[in-house]
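Thread title: Can someone regenerate the structure for this chain?

I was given the following input by a collaborator and told the matching structure tokens would be attached. They weren't. Posting the sequence so someone can regenerate them.
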Amino acid sequence: MAGLLVNIGGYSVKSNRESGNGRPDIVITELKFRGRAMILELKVSETISGMEKKCEEGLAQIEKGNYAQPLLDDGHQPILKYAICFFKKGSMVRKAK
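Best answer:
Regenerated them for you:
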């Protein structure tokens, strides 16, 4: 997934780098000083009905792992947090409030 995002102009894309108390799947930061940042947590569901739960788990993992703290420490604002769940060829995306 990170390979698809690597050529986004004006952004840095990092995958599975230590951040906070864990390793978020993908972190995208704007190259502009103290620009916006995005944390993406990716999940796979065994069923279509389990996709919502997996997205909730992904968002909870971002919070529990404190993945945003290093980005906040570096002055990034805003920090957007997303969980993306895949099932077969479909996907579901949920954004933290």
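The chain has three helices and five strands.
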